[in-house]
Amino acid sequence: MESSITGRAGSSGAPHPSHPEVLFSVTGRGAVVTGAASGLGFAIARVLARNGARVVLVDAVADTLDRAVADLAAEGCVVRAALADVRDPAAMDAVMAEAAAWGSGLDIVFANAGISSGLGHRFGVGALAEIDQERWNGVIDVNLTGLMNTVRAAARHMNEGDGRIVVTSSVAGLAPDPLVGYAYSSSKAAVTLFAQNAAAELASRGINVNVIAPGSFLTAIGAKNPGNTGMIEALTAATATKRIADPAEIEGLALLLASPAARHITGSVFVIDGGVLVTRN
Ligand SMILES: NC(=O)c1ccc[n+]([C@@H]2O[C@H](COP(=O)([O-])OP(=O)(O)OC[C@H]3O[C@@H](n4cnc5c(N)ncnc54)[C@H](O)[C@@H]3O)[C@@H](O)[C@H]2O)c1
Do the bridges between strand 207-214 and strand 54-59 make them parallel or antiparallel, or are there none, so unpaired? Predict the structure, then answer.
C-alpha cells in the first residue's frame, strides 16, 4: 500500500494546523528583544521580524542599535529601536509600555542583554583572589538585575493568554565552568531559577517563561576582555563538535519558543551548546 503525505492545505484550503507555517507562526505578534543590536539578540530579533512579528530592538548602544534596525527595515521587516539600559527599571517599563501600545500589543519578550565578567579561573586572571568588586557588581547589575527589570516590566504590560518570555542564561550557569568568570556564571545560574519561578507565577495568566542556555557563539561579548588570548581555542576545545557556533544558529530555537509550538512548554531550560555539557568532566 502506498503511503501519502498530505499537502500544505487542510480541507478548508487554509494551511494545515501541523504545517510549519502555522505551528511556528509569529506573524502579527508583538515582540521585544533586549541586547538586540549585536550577536544572539540581533539573530533573535531577525528571525522574529523575518517571520512577520513587529519587533522592538532594545539596546544601550545607539550606533549599533540604529544599524541593526536599519538593516532589518531595509529587508521590509516591521521593526523599531528603543535605546534603553536594562539596568534602568523606569526605562524598561517605558519600553514595554510603548511596545504594548504598538499594534495589537506585546506577546513575546526575549530578556537577552548580558555582559561578560572576563576570563575564568583557568586563566589565572579569573581566580577567586582576583575578583574585582566593581566588575562583579556591574555584571550582576546587567545580567541579573537588568534581566529582572526586563521580565518584571514585560509581565506588567504583556497580553495575557498566549505570551512568551524567554531569558538568555548560559551553560556556564548550569555547571561549573573554569573558562568564564565567577560573576558571569553566578548571574547565569541565578537567572535560570528566576525564570522558573516566573514560569510558575505567570502560568495562570497564560504567559510561558523559558530559558535558553547557549554554549559558545561567536559574538562581541568577549571582545573587550583583556588577556583574551587562547579563549577561543579553549572554548572550541570544550565543545563536542569542536566548533563555535554562528549567532544565526540560535534562530530555530528562538522561533520555536516564541511560537504556538511552545504552548505547553514553560519553566524549561534549552541547552544549545554543541555538546559542551555532555563532554565536560
Ligand atoms: N556568545 C556566547 O557564546 C554566549 C554564550 C552563553 C550566553 N550568552 C548570552 O547571550 C546574551 C547575548 O550575548 P552576545 O554573545 O550576543 O553578546 P554581544 O555583546 O554580541 O551582544 C550583547 C548586546 O547586549 C547589549 N547590552 C549590554 N549591556 C546592556 C544593557 N545594560 N542594557 C541594554 N543592552 C545591553 C550590548 O550593547 C550588545 O549589543 C548574553 O546574555 C550572554 O550572556 C552568550
Answer: unpaired
39 CB within 6 A, ligand 1: yes
| Residue among 184, 194, 217, 270 flagged as catalytic | 184
Q: Ligand 1 within 6 A of 244 CB? A: no
Question: Is 182 part of the annotated catalytic residue set?
Answer: no
Determine which residue's CA is closest to atom 16 belonging to ligand 1: 39
Q: Is 115 in the pocket of ligand 1 (CB under 6 A)?
A: yes
C-alpha cell at 189: 545560574
Residues 6+ apart with CB under 8 A from 65: 36, 37, 57, 58, 59, 81, 83
The pLDDT value recorded for residue 85 is 99
Question: Ligand 1 pocket, 213 CB below 6 A?
Answer: no
| Residue 15 main-chain phi, psi, to 5 deg | -55, 140
Domain spans, the chain: 23-279
C-alpha cell at 133: 568588586
Rounded Cα distance between 72 and 77, Å, is 5
**pLDDT computed for residue 96 by the predictor:** 99
Per-residue confidence (pLDDT) for residue 280, from 0 to 100 = 81
Rounded to two decimals, the pTM is: 0.96
Ligand 1: nearest atom to the Cα of 221: 19
CA quadruple 70, 72, 75, 79: dihedral, nearest 10: -90
The predicted structure's pLDDT at residue 8 = 66
Which residues of the chain have a pLDDT value below 70?
1-11, 281
Using CA atoms, how far apart are residues 128 and 186, in angstroms rounded to an integer?
A: 13
pLDDT at site 11: 65
pLDDT for 281 equals: 63
What pLDDT score does 254 carry?
Answer: 99
CATH topology (fold) of 23-279? Rossmann fold (3.40.50)
